[in-house]
């Protein structure tokens, strides 16, 4: 079972060890400590923990709708989700995504939905999101850094 936890400086050494395969680096944060250092006050880093070990990372972006015209006003954005390459294929992403709606409702109760974009070439991630209940309404975000992205959402509540 995995646990979602807000990132704190106590986890700095743990997140520094996270890595993804070279072909995945274009789709997510290749350097988690650097990504954390670049965050603004609206972007809240989180870790995914399994068996007392940090196995993944993601950001909840409270200002997602401000920077993405496809997103409704009260949408909480998910960014840079990754599972460490040594822990991929164990179901940790799926477990975290299944827990995320209830976590978001408790910790970020003013939001009505979760939104994210996933690169059209990142089929494993896309399939995982859809399997966990995220809905693809058929629209694409064309402003992605490495090509078009599917826009997925999950209604909270």
Question: Notable features of this structure?
Answer:
157 residues; 25% helix; alpha+beta; seven-stranded mixed beta sheet
Describe this structure in words.
This protein has 157 residues and is an alpha+beta fold. It has one domain (2-114): Aminopeptidase (3-Layer(aba) Sandwich), CATH 3.40.630. The chain has helices at residues 12-16, 32-37, 64-67, 92-107, 123-131; strands at residues 2-6, 43-50, 53-61, 75-83, 113-119, 135-141, 149-155. The mean pLDDT is 95.
Q: What series of H and E elements makes up the topology?
A: EHHEEHEHEHEE
**Low-pLDDT regions:** none
Oligomer: single chain
The tally of beta strands, per DSSP, is 7
Give the strand order of the largest sheet, numbering strands 1, 2, ... along the chain: 1-2-3-4-5-7-6
Superfamily (CATH H level) name: Gcn5-related N-acetyltransferase (GNAT)
Report the helical percentage: 25-40%
* CATH classification class: Alpha Beta
Class per helix and strand makeup: alpha+beta
Over all CA atoms, what is the radius of gyration? 14 Å
What is the rounded distance between the termini? 23 Å
CATH topology: Aminopeptidase
Strand content: 25-35%
Q: Judging by the overall fold, what is the CATH architecture?
A: 3-Layer(aba) Sandwich
Q: How many separate helices?
A: 5
- Approximate shape: globular
Keywords: Transferase
GO molecular function: acyltransferase activity, transferring groups other than amino-acyl groups
Pfam family, one: Acetyltransf_1
Protein name: GNAT family N-acetyltransferase
């Amino acid at each position: 079972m995995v646990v979602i936890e807000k990132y704190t400086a106590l986890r700095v050494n743990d997140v520094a060890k996270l890595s993804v395969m070279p072909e995945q680096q274009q789709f997510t944060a290749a350097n988690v400590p650097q990504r954390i250092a670049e965050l603004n006050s609206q972007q809240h880093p989180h870790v995914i923990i399994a068996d007392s070990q940090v196995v993944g990372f993601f950001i909840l972006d409270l200002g997602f709708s401000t920077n993405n015209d496809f997103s409704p006003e009260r949408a909480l954005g998910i960014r840079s989700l990754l599972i460490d390459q040594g822990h991929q294929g164990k179901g940790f992403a799926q477990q975290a995504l299944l827990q995320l709606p209830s976590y978001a409702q408790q910790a970020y109760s003013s939001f009505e939905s979760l939104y994210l974009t996933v690169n059209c070439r990142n089929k494993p991630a896309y399939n995982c999101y859809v399997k966990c209940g995220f809905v693809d309404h058929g629209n694409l975000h064309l402003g992605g850094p490495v090509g078009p992205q599917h826009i997925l959402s999950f209604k909270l509540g």
